[in-house]
Amino acid sequence: MTTFGIIGGGAWGTALAATLAGNGPVTLWAREADVVAAINSARENPQFLPGVPLPAGITATADLADIVASDIVLVVVPAQHLRATLALAALPATTPIILCAKGIEAGSHKLMLEVARDLVPNPIAVLSGPSFAHEVAAGKPCAITLASENKALGERLIAAMARPTFRLYQSDDVLGAEIGGAVKNVLAIACGVVEGAGLGLNARAALIARGFAEMTRFGVARGARAETLAGLSGLGDLVLTCSSENSRNFRLGVGLGQGRPLADLLAGPAVAEGAATAPVLVEAARAAQVDMPICAAVAALLAGAPVKETISALLARPLKAE
Ligand SMILES: NC(=O)c1ccc[n+]([C@@H]2O[C@H](COP(=O)([O-])OP(=O)(O)OC[C@H]3O[C@@H](n4cnc5c(N)ncnc54)[C@H](O)[C@@H]3O)[C@@H](O)[C@H]2O)c1
Ligand SMILES: O=P(O)(O)OC[C@H](O)CO
């Protein structure tokens, strides 16, 4: 039987714990003492995944040392905290690590695999795709990409983690899986702005299609394959998060589009990764000489640019071929 360690007791780490507990014992590390206590006593994570009953096979812990004996470790802390958290975890060098955050590190412009490679020699895979935590935890069907450069590792991880309603598709394009997940968060903010500013469904569809073109241009420039970006971890996740207020990134955009203060929108423990990713993505796109006007508009809005003028500037760009 496989044992799982999960580092990060937010919504996604908790949902993955609930799912994987069907395949083997799960040890779930959370930073918050009250989250650890609630999971172990009330079998619920009221702070990050309220209302979802958690199975007995999950043991929560506040001590990272309790994770080190696990057969497979999933790291599910937000992207900007991966480096510090993984450094503290001190995992055995042979333990397979699955990176689950969707973002790009500020400053270094590094994707999650690149951050992890700075720190550890372990076998590494990336999990990315359309997966709202509360739906996965409730056992609703979900199909998601497990990407690893090592084919045998990918097959082993998928065999250990797949569930009847949790379908893992294998890919060897780690960059593609990561870039899709990181960029879709920024585009979800853009679609939320369209919703919040009342610009209509035609505008949203245009943003999804033109945003996907930006994602593909950037991904290919960084070495990803276009077909990966057209799959679950790119287009699949883009469609999900651009069409539902269940997405924290989309909700952030709605608030921005309504003219609400950014500080209010970012208050609270839940993370909207696109807010941290947008400015980094714009810098990385400039470095790669890739044009990403929608993502640049999102970064400008997050830096305080006015909504109406930012949208007008986007629409006033020179007309060009599709
Ligand atoms: N929620 C989802 O549906 C979902 C699905 C797929 C992927 N993801 C990705 O998973 C990652 C985690 O998101 P989430 O939804 O579980 O988080 P969340 O918004 O539910 O909770 C925030 C998390 O950040 C942690 N955190 C805050 N400050 C920290 C610090 N200094 N160091 C380490 N951790 C810190 C908190 O402990 C908590 O676990 C993100 O990259 C997100 O994009 C989320
Ligand atoms: O709530 P969001 O916007 O962080 O989206 C959650 C997941 O990434 C959806 O796949």
Automatic annotation (TrEMBL):
Which reaction(s) does its UniProt entry say it catalyses? Answer: sn-glycerol 3-phosphate + NAD(+) = dihydroxyacetone phosphate + NADH + H(+); sn-glycerol 3-phosphate + NADP(+) = dihydroxyacetone phosphate + NADPH + H(+)
Q: Which residues bind NAD(+)?
A: 8-13, 133, 248
Instruction: Please provide the record's keywords in A-Z order.
Output: Cytoplasm, Lipid biosynthesis, Lipid metabolism, NAD, NADP, Nucleotide-binding, Oxidoreductase, Phospholipid biosynthesis, Phospholipid metabolism
Q: In which pathway does it act?
A: Membrane lipid metabolism; glycerophospholipid metabolism
Q: Where mainly located?
A: cytoplasm
Pfam families per the UniProt record, alphabetical: NAD_Gly3P_dh_C, NAD_Gly3P_dh_N
Q: Example GO molecular function term?
A: NAD binding
E.C. number, please? 1.1.1.94
| An example Gene Ontology biological process | glycerol-3-phosphate biosynthetic process
Question: Residues that bind substrate, according to the entry?
Answer: 102, 248-249
Q: Which family, according to UniProt?
A: Belongs to the NAD-dependent glycerol-3-phosphate dehydrogenase family.
Q: PANTHER family recorded for this chain? A: GLYCEROL-3-PHOSPHATE DEHYDROGENASE, GLYCEROL-3-PHOSPHATE DEHYDROGENASE [NAD(+)] 2, CHLOROPLASTIC
- Mind telling me what this protein is named? Glycerol-3-phosphate dehydrogenase [NAD(P)+]
- The species this protein was found in: Sandarakinorhabdus cyanobacteriorum
Q: What lineage is on file?
A: Bacteria, Pseudomonadati, Pseudomonadota, Alphaproteobacteria, Sphingomonadales
